[in-house]
């Protein structure tokens, strides 16, 4: 069942407060039965019929299903980690544009990555995988001693002594588990084929948080609603590219139509393979992950698990049928046993 | 006086030594690890797990936001569903002696159901927007279906309890009460039972429809929760019936049902652990972030295996007693009181076990979400 598109507008950018009006302001005036409630009621009753009808219409407004906006070209990100220099400009640009608050910095103690995760207020996250000297302790890939000996003469790019960097972001999955789980219809697919959380609808049930196989979407104590990358929906509406892609100095983050980006990713992969970088691979650029691929995909220089990316996550909504089957079977057995228990003397 | 103090301190010392010894036996987690390996079929290999790549062991998933509210909702929702189910069984298939079961079941169902919506609303990040849940009817989202089920089940549970109250003449003798008492309670029970079974089981399906390895790897959680709903409810109804000295025949039926529900819960739980394999470590292991001690003591053994064995013994002695009752009635009095105490203990064990089943599964789900290596293994290994 597709999600209904009820109110697609410019996302509110003024964070902590954000997320729509308080309940009292959202209700039509008839419901404002405050200290002078009686007076208001009297005024409403004195109005002519069309006024009452208008009142009824505003009352039923939340139930009205809007026509979805005409679809545009599907857009997304291609994040090429071979070009990332770990400057974190994308993180900052995202925070600035989306007016996300900053937390007191806490040193991770493991690497230069002190952001550590994508969450309700970090919609871009630069990973720093510092592989200095790891081969000496015995690398899991089993890169031998010969390689280490040859290393100093090689270019840093091909050297096992290297840093891997990746700017992580919401993957805007073609079959987004968060969208499929959302019971309020707050999470929608926009006309740009991106996944967007309507902050004025979300009630913070937290089901999307556990549905997301990438650990992206999060509920924050500040707003109480689920938040994640919007792919700068407001900028897209005005024909601008998202802030992170705009600011990326090495074009590691490329924004564009998904089809075009996929071709570009294939071409880049072929180029890297040709130059001998055999471990380069694409993640989410085809239709395999979550049975439809990702609209924000990556070129990786190692296996996905190194970047904390699940290799082949299962689509949670696919679990409904088998889980229901076992539950129904058990219910049937218990029902029959119950009848037996009560019938037999 | 001095002698007394001396004997008291010796007694205390003996007691302490005994407690220490018991602690040593139970804190030696060897038996727990053996049970964990046996039930999940996974033998942990820390060295190999350490070789698996992750990103500084930072969690690859977000931690669930669900806490004690959801634990209590799962427990009370299960009780509401199970009590309705059992009361309806008694109404549809029972005899005159099952009237107490039916009455207790319908009242308890409504009582257990009342806090549920409040707990769910409190759990929301924006509680004032709880009505937004009713904007959608999404078949693929167990939470959406669950909300609709809860709303419609409330109607049936409330109405059935009202009819019962009217029939018990708790509502007085005015025309409304007489009209309520004439409503067909047994007809309501049919759709109500279906909804009750849905309510008791969907919570497990909801947890299975996530990306948390512990909850979603095996698809058996719904089966575990529905059987636990029936077993805890029959324990609760039996507890109330025992305290109110209900006819033994009605109790006997409940005990039989509980015996079957406990057995099916044990089997479903074993299937769940076996199907989860390594993902179930967060639940059954005895490591620092694992919930094995509580799970094995309070749920698997204390809340399932022990009550099931007790119940088996109780049913067997009942049968033997029933045969002996015709022979002589002299020993009957002492026999009954002993059986009664065992029954109360059994009901309490099952209820505590049912609560901790939900609690350990939710808490172990939190641990499971933080375990990046298992998460990545779960997404890599064939399912």
From TrEMBL, chain B:
It is found in: Cell membrane. GO terms for cellular component: plasma membrane. Gene3D superfamilies: Formate dehydrogenase/DMSO reductase domain (1.20.1630.10). Keywords: Cell membrane, Membrane, Transmembrane, Transmembrane helix. The chain crosses the membrane at residues 70-93, 105-125, 145-166, 187-208, 220-245, 337-357. It is a multi-pass membrane protein. Its main location: membrane. Coiled coil: none annotated. It comes from the Bacteria. Belongs to the NrfD family. This is Polysulfide reductase. It comes from Thermogemmatispora tikiterensis.
């Amino acid at each position: 069942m597709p999600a209904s598109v009820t109110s697609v507008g410019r996302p509110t950018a003024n964070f902590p407060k954000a997320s729509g009006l308080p309940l009292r302001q959202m209700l039509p005036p008839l419901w404002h039965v405050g200290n002078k409630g009686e007076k208001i009621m009297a005024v409403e009753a004195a109005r002519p019929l069309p006024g009452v009808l208008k009142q009824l219409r505003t009352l039923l407004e939340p139930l009205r299903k809007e026509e979805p906006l005409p679809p545009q070209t599907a857009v997304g990100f291609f994040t090429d980690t071979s070009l990332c220099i770990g400057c974190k400009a994308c993180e900052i640009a995202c925070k600035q544009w989306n007016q996300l608050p900053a937390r007191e910095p806490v040193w991770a103690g493991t690497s230069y990555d002190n952001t550590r995760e994508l969450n309700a207020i970090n919609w871009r996250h630069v990973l720093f995988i510092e592989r200095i000297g790891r081969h000496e302790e015995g690398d899991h890939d089993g890169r031998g001693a010969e390689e280490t000996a040859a290393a100093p003469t090689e270019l840093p790019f091909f050297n096992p002594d290297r840093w891997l960097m990746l700017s992580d972001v919401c993957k805007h999955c073609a079959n987004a588990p968060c969208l499929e789980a959302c019971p309020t219809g707050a999470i929608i697919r926009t006309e740009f084929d991106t996944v967007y959380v309507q902050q004025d609808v979300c009630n913070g049930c937290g089901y999307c948080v556990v549905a997301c196989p990438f650990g992206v979407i999060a509920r924050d104590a500040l707003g109480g609603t689920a938040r994640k990358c919007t792919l700068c929906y407001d900028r897209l509406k005005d024909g601008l590219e998202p802030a992170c892609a705009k600011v990326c100095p090495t074009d590691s983050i490329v924004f564009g139509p998904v089809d075009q980006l996929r071709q570009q990713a294939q071409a880049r992969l072929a180029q890297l393979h040709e130059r001998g970088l055999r471990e380069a691979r694409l993640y989410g650029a085809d239709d395999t992950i979550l049975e439809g691929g990702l609209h924000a995909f990556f070129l990786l220089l190692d296996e996905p698990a190194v970047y904390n990316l699940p290799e082949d996550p299962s689509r949670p909504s696919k679990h409904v049928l088998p889980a229901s089957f076992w539950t129904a079977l058990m219910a049937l057995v218990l029902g029959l046993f119950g009848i037996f228990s009560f019938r037999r003397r | 006086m001095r002698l007394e103090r001396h004997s008291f301190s010796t007694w205390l010392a003996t007691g302490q030594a005994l407690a220490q010894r018991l602690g040593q036996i139970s804190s030696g987690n060897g038996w727990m690890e053996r049970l964990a390996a046996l039930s999940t079929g996974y033998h942990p290999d820390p060295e190999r797990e350490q070789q698996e790549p992750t990103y500084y062991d930072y969690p690859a998933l977000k931690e669930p936001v669900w806490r004690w509210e959801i634990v209590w909702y799962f427990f009370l929702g299960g009780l509401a569903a199970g009590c309705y189910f059992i009361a309806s069984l008694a109404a549809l298939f029972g005899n005159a002696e099952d009237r107490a079961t039916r009455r207790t079941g319908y009242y308890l169902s409504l009582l257990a159901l009342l806090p549920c919506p409040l707990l769910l609303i409190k759990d929301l990040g924006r509680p004032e927007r709880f009505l937004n849940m009713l904007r959608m009817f999404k078949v693929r989202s167990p939470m959406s279906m669950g909300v609709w089920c809860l709303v419609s089940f409330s109607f049936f549970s409330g109405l059935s309890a009202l009819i019962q109250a009217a029939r018990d003449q708790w509502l007085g003798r005015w025309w409304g009460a007489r009209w309520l008492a004439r409503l067909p309670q047994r007809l309501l029970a049919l759709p109500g039972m279906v909804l009750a079974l849905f309510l008791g089981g969907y919570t497990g399906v909801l947890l299975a429809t996530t990306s948390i390895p512990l909850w979603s790897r095996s698809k058996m959680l719904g089966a575990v929760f529905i059987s636990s709903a029936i077993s805890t409810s029959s324990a609760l109804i039996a507890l109330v019936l025992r305290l109110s000295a209900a006819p033994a025949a009605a109790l006997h039926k409940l005990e039989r049902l509980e015996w079957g529900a406990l057995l099916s819960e044990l089997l479903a739980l074993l299937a769940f652990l076996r199907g989860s394999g390594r993902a179930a470590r967060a639940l059954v292991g005895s490591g620092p972030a694992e919930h094995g001690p509580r799970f094995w003591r309070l749920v698997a053994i204390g809340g399932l295996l022990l009550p099931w064995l007790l119940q088996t013994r109780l049913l067997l002695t009942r049968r033997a007693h029933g045969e002996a009752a015709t022979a002589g009635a002299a020993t009957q009095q002492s026999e009954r009181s002993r059986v009664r105490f065992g029954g109360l203990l059994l009901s309490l064990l099952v209820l505590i076990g049912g609560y901790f089943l939900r609690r350990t599964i939710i808490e172990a789900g939190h641990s499971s979400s933080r375990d990046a290596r298992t998460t990545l293994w779960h997404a890599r290994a064939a399912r």
